[in-house]
Amino acid sequence: MFFKPSRFTMLALPLASLVALSPGWARARAQAGTIVENVELRTLAGGKEKLLSSKVKANIFVFFRPAQDRSLDALKQMAACEKEFAGKSVHWVALVSSSATREEVTPMVIESGIKMPVLIDEGDLLYEKLGIRLHPMVGITDARGKLQAIEQYRQIEYCDIIRARIRIALGELTEADLQKIENPEKAIMPGDDPMKKAMRDVNMARRLFEIGQYEKAIERAKKGLEIAPVAKGFSLQAEANARLGRCAEANVLAEQALKLDANDPWAPLAKAACAGK
Questions:
Q1: Which of 67, 175, 167 is nearest to 112 (CA)?
Q2: Which of 41, 114, 130, 208 fits 119 for a cystine, CB–CB 3.0-4.6 Å?
Q3: Both 87 and 200 in a single domain?
Q4: Is residue 165 classed exposed, middle or buried when 0-12, 13-18 and 19+ CB atoms within 10 A define those classes?
Q5: Looking at residue 206, which CATH number applies to its domain?
Q6: What is the pLDDT of residues 214-262, one digit of tens each?
Q7: Quick one: 103 and 30 in the same domain?
């Protein structure tokens, strides 16, 4: 197991640290504007690394727990976000408790696909200091360590929200844009455009597809097709079936999509994935 500070070690902390970790403070969840200390922590790989970088516009830290399905899902979504922002002014780290074993953590990190370093939160000190009570949780700060937001886990829109928070930090979006993502327009009422209503389900299916929930993505796309015959409803199913190795179904669905829209962007991807199979 990772080293966990003994009671003696905790008592030996500097007075300032003890004040920061007092029960009253620890119960208060950190709010936007709080300055997060740029502590240096051990890494899963055996080295040491700072929590934050002063050279970027957005610092992202991801608290997760081994052997927890929602933590694995969150890491998979963050892997997609991490890939999307590769090369931009963004610094990523994941954080795991020192009470977890390397044998528990390593397989989960590999399965999730994250590339960010995994830092060890000794004795859960940072977790407690930020007043976090649930895993997984994502924090976002600027270059100076000023907390922009702490976002708790959500199954579907998690990467969307973190993506928006990052883009705000990068100056590409505003808080008003984020509000539109968090509070989408109400469902279209009967009599409104059925194609738009169908695309809501197809867009949700695409999010499920992006986090590897292929069967759920297929079901959600079918729900959209019950409303209107949108090409992307067929091509999304084609892509998902291709990922599941069901190429006969994938090819049929891809052709249906192309009949409706010869320029559909997803159908060729499904056909390419099944080429020669």
A1: 67
A2: 41
A3: no
A4: buried
A5: 1.25.40.10
A6: 999 999 999 999 989 999 999 999 999 999 999 999 999 999 999 999 9
A7: yes
209 and 175 assigned to the same domain: no
Comparison of pLDDT for 193 and 106, the residue scoring more: 106
Q: What is the mean pLDDT of residues 108-137?
A: 93
CA Rg value for the chain: 22
Phi, psi dihedral angles at 104 (to 5 degrees): -80, -40
What residues make up the domain containing 114? 20-182
Q: What is the pLDDT of residue 235?
A: 95
Q: Which amino acid is residue 55, in one-letter code?
A: K
The predicted-structure confidence for 165-202, as pLDDT tens digits, reads as follows: 999 999 888 877 767 666 655 544 555 678 888 898 99
Domain boundary among 134, 162, 182: 182
Q: Is residue 133 part of a domain?
A: yes
Domain ends where: 145, 160, 182?
A: 182
Phi, psi (deg, nearest 5) at residue 229: -80, 75
Provide the residue type at 14 as one letter.
Answer: P
